[in-house]
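Figure S4 source data
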Amino acid sequence: MRHWKFASVPARHCRGSDDAMRLLITRPSEDADAFAKLLRARGHVPVVAPTMDVRLHDGPEIALTNVQAVLATSANGIRALARRTKHRSIPVYAVGPQTAEAAKSAGFKAVHNSEGDSTALVEFVAERADSVKGSLFHAAGAETAGRLRQGLQAKGFTVESEVLYDAVPLSTLPDAAKQALQIGALDGVLLFSPRSAKTFATLTVEAELLGACAALEAFCISAATAAALTPLTFARVAVAGVPNQEGMLALLPAAGT
């Protein structure tokens, strides 16, 4: 895994409209590394410092008997499911583009993208699936196991759910984040969920670096994510217009223009 080498990150300077932004990515490693490539392609400088560790659960083969489709609310859910089933012809309803791409990369043949969040996914599935044609299977994480199921059950669907992974918060702020905050080597921080925002805020306060965020911009995937940053304060907080990776990229200026 290649991360940004901290020693080569200069202290922050006054940024013009054509400058690269130094951006802290707090999401788990595999997703962070993929997003870092997108940032570099747009002329920005990523600093990868995951604040959560994803642990995929081992277990027996998941048969998916009498299941008409899989529900996927994260790329991690797809990765975890792909390890435990050989079925690739079953349709997948994905919450957004990144999850859909993970499903395609894992070999699933029929992937449908709701282009939104879990609420949008409920409506998307209800419009396209038939409640009498079999159950739905949610490849869930420990923090997402109930919400989607409840929404679809209210619309008459039978939803099976199994927790296939955990996202475990780290106990201390990663060194890359701590050092970058200490010397002012960042322009902003990217936050992809309320839970990761809360974890970042907690670890930053515990590291006694609360004041280091005051000059930074916070780019948040949702209003709930922005709200979870309390008690941190930022020079500016921006919320994505759509709650997915593309929405986050749209918040950032293009470097070199």
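Figure S5 source data
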Amino acid sequence: MALGIPGELVHFFAAEGGHSLLIKGPSGAGKTLLALQLADELKDEFVPHYTGREILHTSLRSQFRPLADFSLRRGPMAGLASLSLQVVCPNCDGMVDVTSGMRPIEVKCPSCGAAQRLADRAELNRLIGDVEKGSPSIEIPMHLPEVETAYDVVDENFRTHPRLRTLLLIDTIDGLDAAYDIRAHRLVSVLQRDLVENTSAGLVLIAAPGAESKLDHLVDGVVALAPPPSGSPYARILSIEKLRGRKSGRHRYVLVLHDGRFWEGRQFILDRTRRYDSGDRNR
């Protein structure tokens, strides 16, 4: 990859199995842009899904088009009001009853015996049960709609894109914490176990400044974005704090903002120099 965000992040997700990444940094550092661009650069292997409680989809499209359009192909999240559901058998179109609390990785159609994959919801339902049992005064609209819809997206992609994995972008994980009064580390632990480890989904979490430190230990990778000491509005420093399972040759990168995307600084300068030397000074 000659240009774009560091290849280490792309290869980290492209490796076999599921992986989770936490993006930290101050407001305005470019965390959302980095997440959306990562989804775009992984589009040959993943189907992305973005959710956020703090940024309206209309605002996201106006700020990050066309990267946002790619990750916002689904409509607003609805979530499931019931702990049980029915799915359509892909072989005979029959209905298969699925009890969410006992949800396996595969279910078989009682009519034709065909199997289909579904996201395991064991940890999600354990969390919902614990919250409702321990804090009956907490009102959770339709349980956890944003989180539940993430599971629905994985299920749908198993059926419609069987050769691709799901990439879930949550912006911000702190927003869900505040909305449901459930600590962010509990939500991350649920998503990590049910979706990342059991379905090989990718998970990108954006954290606001001051996010709880427990998140760093739960995820597979942690990166931090920050403006450079010079204060340049067109540059960011990307620090790789960890990428579990990968040996990182470099831990700090300079990213350049250009044409609505991040570009790895060293490659960007070399490319611009080559274009200038070749006489193409307009690019």
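Residues 145-160 form the longest helix (16 residues). The chain has ten helices and twelve strands.
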